Amino acid sequence: MPKSKLLYLLMLIVSIVFIIYVLYINFIYDPQAAEFLSRKTNLKRSVNIPAWLTVMKVHVVLACLAMVSGAVNFSHRIQRKYRKFHRINGYVYLISVIAVVITSGYMAPYSTGGKVNSIAFNLLNIIWPIVTITAIVKIKKKQVNNHRKWMVRSYAFCFTNMAIHMITSVFNNGFGIAYSTSYTIGVYGSILLLPLLAEAVFRFKSRVP
Ligand code: HEM
């Protein structure tokens, strides 16, 4: 199997496993997000829990939709054979991204770890749609390679939640650093690492058939 196909398969597996995990945790295992909410200390504003939970669940479902629609659209087969589907699905991805950042905008002021993380999430709320819209502008100008590159950059942000929790867990469980500090490292670490991961994908793809 060509290495680029293997990379796509790996991304599909990681995305599917993560989607199942996120849906299980947030809708079955801990639907009240009791564990996550218990980590919120020293917040300047008090959280309206029912409203926060509703927004968070909409956020999770649309984030999963963004992950699925994005993953499907990277398939070369779909790009070549089902162009109309690729286009419609691309707009499904764009709308999902917009919905994720709008819901994120509601939750950002109540971020675990406080203002420092609210700022980071709001920064992402601006960057992610810009990157995604840039990808669409590129294809409108018929720049296929640039479209692909900007979509990879956009899709990398779908792994924000996974990256935050992985980094937080390493610093909190691995190094014994306080949860909110580890979470802050997780948020900023993800914003730095995910774009680098996208660049690593381009380098890998330019070296393999
Ligand atoms: C696309 C994949 C994503 C998934 C599956 C996802 C999922 C979640 C989940 C389950 C939560 C609840 C808390 C937790 O368990 O972490 C959450 C919170 C949050 N997400 Fe996302 N998210 C994604 C992407 C993003 C992106 C790209 C942003 C920013 C643009 C974002 C912003 C937020 C914010 C601000 C919160 C509240 C954090 C807090 O209260 O500390 N998420 N997300």
Describe the structure in brief.
Helix content is 82%, strand content 0%. The chain has 9 helices and no strands. It comes from Paenibacillus sedimenti.
- Percent in strands: under 5%
Continuous helix count: 9
Q: Summarize the main sheet.
A: none
Q: Determine the N-to-C terminus distance.
A: 10 Å
What would you call the structural class? mainly alpha
How would you characterize this protein structure?
The protein contains nine helices and no strands. It is an all-alpha fold and 209 residues long. It has one domain. Helix 7 (144-156) runs antiparallel to helix 9 (179-207). The chain is globular, with a radius of gyration of 18 Å. Bound molecules: protoporphyrin IX containing FE (HEM). Protoporphyrin IX containing FE binds next to helix 1, helix 3, helix 5, helix 6 and helix 8. Pfam families: DUF2306. This is DUF2306 domain-containing protein. It comes from Paenibacillus sedimenti. Keywords: Membrane, Transmembrane, Transmembrane helix.
Which keywords apply here?
single chain, 209 residues, mainly alpha, 9 helices, 82% helix, binds protoporphyrin IX containing FE
Task: Indicate the topology.
Elements: H1 3-29, H2 34-38, H3 49-73, H4 76-81, H5 83-107, H6 115-140, H7 144-156, H8 160-174, H9 179-207
The chain binds protoporphyrin IX containing FE.
